[in-house]
Amino acid sequence: MKKIVALLLTLLLCFSLCGCEYAYKYFDLDLKSEFTKDLAGTSLTVYNWGEYISDGSDDMLDVNAEFERLTGIKVNYLTFESNETMYSQIKSGGVTYDIIIPSDYMIERLIKENELLEIDTKKLSNYSLIDEQYKNVYFDPQNKYSVPFSVGMVGIIYNTALVGTDIEPSWNVLWDKKYKDMTLNFNNPRDAFMTAQMLLGQDLNSTNKADWEKAAELLKKGKANLQSYVMDEVYGKMETGEAAIAPYYAGDYLTMYDTNEDLAFFYPKEGTNIFIDSICIPKSCKNYDAALMYINFLLEPQIATANAEYIGYASPNTAVINNPDYYYYQNKILYPDKKDMPKVQYYHDIEDEIRMHYEMLWCDVKLY
Fold first, then answer.
1. Domains and CATH numbers, the chain
2. Claim: this prediction has a pTM higher than 0.85
3. Tens-digit pLDDT profile for residues 216-268
4. Could you give the strand order of the β-sheet that contains 99-100, starting from the edge strand earlier in sequence?
């Protein structure tokens, strides 16, 4: 018996030490471009949103593992929860990154502050797959510094088992007292202010301090209604029914719905934010050629489809959009018909004085 126990313990130890090597089964990739091992042995540091790349879970493709196997380049993958967090890390200079994936207005700011390197799109054989409507956009009109990665809009997620289906399709639900202690709001200033600005009918890029002050007062008024401010914590709270109503990104709703089919979604009638998250190369980049190779890999149809299916956001890649086997092919939340498209506004980078003002107001809201 002692020998059997010892043998079992030895086997258990072996599995615990070696199991990780067998946890992921590599895919038989069908790639448009060639990827060499010329840079094998080097490393690449990628800084991206949480839950924002296909990672091998649920038998899906592991993008970073496949890239490492294909090129021999080690990927150091780090995540952030908001554009502002990413920005502070870039400006601190404490860590260097080769790839970052910010949102539109933050890219605009980073370009103004000379924090990004130009991307040589001629070296990206898959760049032609990017839908033309996402090129020459306001924050990068000459396509010098960014390559679109995903597209989305913000809406309201609600739990029909907790609040029913007869719910007003308005931002006002976050302030409605019948949902007290059941609602969440964003834990970042730009998105949180947006929920109030839309209700007030404001320009999301207002340069009038009084507009931001009115929005801050409305957020303060609604704070007593909230359960909490959240970012990635929204998944656990909405999937388990701990909270019933939350503003969040449409793609994340689809991910949550896979876990909890009581969840439903609408775009508020007052309008909402639309955004483009794009791949950039910061000035701190230490492996530029590997960064280009990684971007081109992300644009591969099979890789872009895996990412789009994992994160649930709309894709700017035509090979994904036009693929009838794509899980979200013609999904009306991600790709609404023209008649159902909500009124939308992009965030723009705002002059320092206004930005500092709303950030101070945000501190007041959080402390209120």
1. 43-146+280-334 (3.40.190.10), 152-274+342-367 (3.40.190.10)
2. yes
3. 999 999 999 999 999 989 999 999 999 999 999 999 999 999 999 999 999 99
4. 74-80, 43-49, 99-100
